[in-house]
Amino acid sequence: MTVTPSSIEQVIPGQGAMAQPSAKPTKAKRKRFRFIANGKAATGLVMLAIYVLFAIIGPWVAPFDPDERTPEVLSPPSAQHWFGTSHLGQDIFSQILAGTRGVMVVGLVAGVIATVLSVLIGVTAGYLGGAADEGLSALSNVFLVIPALPLIIIVTAAVTNAGDLIVALVIGLTSWAWGARVLRAQTLSLRRRDYVEAARASGEKTWRIILFEILPNLTAIIASGFVGTVIFAVMSEITLAFIGISSVSSWNWGTILFWAQSQQALAQGAWWWFVPAGLAIALLGTSLSLINFGIDEFVSPRLRSSGTGRFRTATGERVKMKVGFTPVVRDRESAPEIEIKDAEGVAR
Cβ contacts of residue 172 below 8 Å, gap of 6+? Predict the structure, then answer.
């Protein structure tokens, strides 16, 4: 019996001899760009990239020398001085560009050091258990009660010409304990999951189980810890410069705030002296938080699909699902009419 292509198309539409493969991209290809397609993550990455770019080329593209003094004292923002000048006529915009490098170096280096230590110690303690867990947990408890900022003040006062790397190293070595405790708790809940037990039963090595089975499920927590450490390191660096502990000869955003506070810029109405540095700090924290939110939505299907679900009611009305709300649809035709009367008994 001969079957014509037309009969095949009648039985299975679109699958006959003349059917062509779809030109639409597959889901696998779309998943590669899902993180970048997230609006929060894309905005945060762009903002962070601008900060990194300014940290690299900032001192070179600054229109003036940050230490150069000019007769234009406490000049407001203008075409020549975008962010105005200080009490010595120094260009504040050039100072902010030159100070971005120190802030970014301290924040990123301290964040990387603290994140690596928290992952190594927290995940190892949670997965191995026993004596290793007890020892590493005791080490985490010791570092958890060490005050980071007073220790940084002591180190910077004891070490002559303590630079940004010394400050970043001290912050990173004293800021990993909290993240390690959180990762240990999450690892304890993951190590007995079915897929981990299956990998262990199949003979997988311990490092492969930790690297490929457990760590992908801890991405959001690791990213959150990194963001928190970077923000803490940036604020610590700025605080040290603001209170005059670190060297005020090297420019960063805290140094600008130090001179603005010491010269009473607020009392003199020189708002341009401290507002740009404060906005730079706030925007850096915003960019890191947006990246963290994007990572949360990328690794969590519940957050990724929240607010996007829609359904159609019996009357044809479309209702959008929202996080934290349960939509209640009332059929207007079958709903009873409620008659409301005032005090005199008149219906309205």
Answer: 109, 110, 111, 112, 113, 114, 117, 229, 233
Nearby residues of 90 by Cβ (< 8 Å), 6 or more positions away? 64, 66, 67, 68, 69, 70
Using the CB atoms, write b or e for 169-204: b if 16+ within 10 Å.
Answer: bbbbbbbbbbbbbbbbebbeebbeeeebeebeeeee
Q: Domain tally for the chain?
A: 1
Asked whether residue 342 is assigned to any structural domain, the reply reads no
CA distances from 219 to 11, 119, 211 (A): 47, 10, 11
Q: Is the dihedral of CA 302, 304, 307, 308 positive or negative?
A: negative
**In angstroms, how far is CA 151 from the centroid of its own chain?**
26
Tell whether 94 is covered by a domain. Answer: yes
- Residue 102 located in a structural domain: yes
Q: Where do we find the tokens 């708790």?
A: 185
Q: What is the token pair recorded at 287? A: 């960019």
Rg (CA), the chain: 30
Query: What's the CATH number where 49 sits?
Result: 1.10.3720.10
Q: In sequence order, what DSSP letters do the residues of 216-232 get, joined into one string?
A: GGGHHHHHHHHHHHHHH
Q: Is residue 339 part of a domain?
A: no
Per-residue pLDDT of the chain (348 residues; tens, 9 = 90+): 555 554 444 444 444 444 444 445 555 555 556 667 778 888 999 999 999 999 999 888 888 888 888 888 888 898 888 999 998 889 999 999 988 988 999 999 999 999 999 999 999 999 988 888 899 999 998 888 888 778 877 877 777 666 788 888 888 988 899 899 999 999 998 888 888 888 888 888 888 888 888 988 888 889 888 888 898 888 888 888 888 776 656 788 888 998 898 888 888 888 999 999 999 999 998 998 888 888 877 776 666 555 455 556 666 666 565 544 455 555 555 545 545 555 555 555
Which residue type occupies 3?
Answer: V
Token pair 């790397």: residue: 165
Both tokens of 297, joined, read 């939505």
Which residues span the domain enclosing 135? Answer: 27-72+87-305
